[in-house]
């Protein structure tokens, strides 16, 4: 008598669980590669955006520094130049030397009838070698007042009482100095770009 063994397929909850497990599907290799590629593009875009933002902040810092330096310097120079000839006879003139890139003035601040005191003679001029603005008070050594000037970054323009511009390619003669009634001043600064090396300019 031959015996046989039968194995019946599982039924009930166990069969349902096995069916659910074998029916699951995951990411294919192609889908995984596409998702990685999209993630990489997104990361590169974020990186470039952050770099661009950082460059903009650095440029803004440099520009703000140049603007602030130019603003303070112009305010101090305007105050000094307004004192040219103070306490002196009108025909004597307070401007002692005038060129397109420099000026020397005198004033009698203490009312003693002369300009021999150390703070009564003042000069400004452009130092082309150091690209800077120099200021000299009396006979003291000239001191740098502002750095990072552009080539020909300091320019004076002189006008007479009628508003006519006076030529300044050469120093004005003494008889012309007394005719100066208005002085325009222009400062141009530049500094290397913090990233690219280009030179942003600030003109005031």
Task: Write a structural description.
By secondary structure, the chain is α+β, with helices and mostly antiparallel strands. It is 33% helix and 25% strand. It contains 3 helices and 9 strands, in the order ααβββββββαββ. The strands form 2 sheets. Strands 1-2-3-4-5 form a 5-stranded antiparallel β-sheet, with helices on one face. It has a 4-stranded antiparallel β-sheet with strand order 7-6-8-9, covered by helices on one side. A hairpin with a 2-residue loop joins strand 1 and strand 2 (102-106). The model has no long low-confidence stretch (mean pLDDT 82).
Count every helix, treating DSSP H or I runs of 4 or more residues as helices.
3
Strand arrangement across the biggest beta sheet: 1-2-3-4-5
H/E series, N to C? Answer: HHEEEEEEEHEE
The backbone outline, from C-alpha atoms, is rod-shaped
How large a portion of the residues is in β-strands, by DSSP E?
A: 25-35%
Helicity level: 25-40%
- Low-confidence segments: none
Q: Helix/strand-derived class? A: alpha+beta
What is Rg? 39 Å
Mean pLDDT value: 82
Number of domain modules: 1
The description of the largest β-sheet is: 5 strands, antiparallel
How many strands? 9
| Euclidean distance between termini CA atoms | 116 Å
């Amino acid at each position: 008598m031959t015996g046989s063994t039968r194995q019946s397929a599982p039924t009930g909850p166990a069969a349902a669980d096995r069916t659910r497990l074998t029916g699951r599907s995951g990411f294919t290799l192609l889908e995984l590669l596409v998702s990685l590629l999209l993630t990489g593009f997104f990361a590169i875009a974020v990186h470039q955006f952050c770099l661009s933002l950082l460059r903009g902040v650095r440029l803004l810092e440099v520009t703000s520094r140049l603007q602030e330096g130019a603003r303070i310097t112009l305010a101090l120079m305007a105050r000094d130049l307004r004192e040219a000839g103070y306490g002196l006879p009108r025909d004597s003139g307070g401007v002692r030397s005038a060129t397109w890139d420099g000026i020397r003035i005198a004033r009698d601040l203490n009312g003693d009838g002369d300009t021999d005191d150390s703070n009564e003679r003042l000069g400004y001029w452009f130092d082309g070698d150091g690209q800077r603005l120099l200021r000299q008070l009396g006979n003291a050594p000239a001191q740098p007042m502002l750095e990072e000037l552009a080539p020909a970054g300091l320019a004076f323009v002189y006008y007479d009482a009628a508003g006519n511009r006076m030529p300044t390619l050469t120093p004005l003669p003494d008889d012309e100095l007394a005719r100066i009634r208005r002085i325009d001043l222009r400062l141009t600064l530049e500094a290397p770009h913090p990233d690219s090396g280009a030179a942003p300019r600030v003109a005031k």
